[in-house]
Sequence to fold (332 residues):
Amino acid sequence: MRRWAASVLLPVSLSACGGWQSTLDPASPGASNIANLWWIMFWTTGVLSTLVIGGLFYAVYRARRHARDEEGDRVGGTERGFILVAGAAMPTLVLISFIVLSVRTGASISEPPGEPELTIEVIGHMFWWEVRYPDHDITTANEIHIPVGAPVDVRVTSADVIHSFWVPQLAPGKVDMIPGRTNRTWMMAEEPGRFRGQCTEFCGVQHALMSLLVVAMPEEDFLAWISDRLPGTELDDPLELRGREVFFEAGCQSCHTIQGVSEPEFLGAPGPDLTHLAARSTLGGLTIENTRENLTAWILDPHHFKPGVRMPPSPLSGEDVGALVAYLETLQ
Ligand code: CUA
Fold:
């Protein structure tokens, strides 16, 4: 009995019905419409399933009694009417209602509630997200900052295999990210907060750790965040200057761009753009927090945190990695 209870209750308690990244805790008009449709379907099918199972038990009970009474089991007029109504008319009505509601919800979320003023490009990579603000000349990774209360135009594509963009609380459903094709969707946050997103198309060994963060902030904070993203800080600390040398010596720039630092032929390198690395709160697509210790350990052996990640381990001396991290921490 206890094992039965655990097997029923455990999945229920594990399927996060609240908190971040829950479809049932929407924070945007599009996500709310989807959640409402879900609740309508949940209660309708819940009530109907209960009635059907109840009817099944009743039928078994009646059949046993009839068997005892040795009565005939011919189907009478009442039964025939019941089968017609409950077995054919009701399901037809319910399914047609569901189709109408689904199509209406689909239409209502296909366009944002207003004309978006901000466009964000998100490019899927194995196993991280490139994030671009084309109007502001900003490129970052895995973390998207948006202003509260305004719809944002989101254009998604992929650099390698098919990924899928999904921020359950903010975006109207999932959108596939397909190489060579740009798909459009939109996002909107009705309140400030941090919202989690997840790749929802199996894309390889680290699909599960391909997560992203959307930070919704008041308009003035968002504008401040944008204007703070100025590449090319002046360095005077010898350790940081040494760190910048290590960036070149260790070959980091063949995979990572730093605006204003990388040599022109290496701009647009395949790995995450590091120009604003220190402004990000996590590393490896939300795998670990962006702290000095974690960044050091990540550079030395990223596979420890994310096996299968495309970044190779960097066999740097303790001195060099310390300098490199000190330099990377200046990249706001
Ligand atoms: Cu990218 Cu799954």
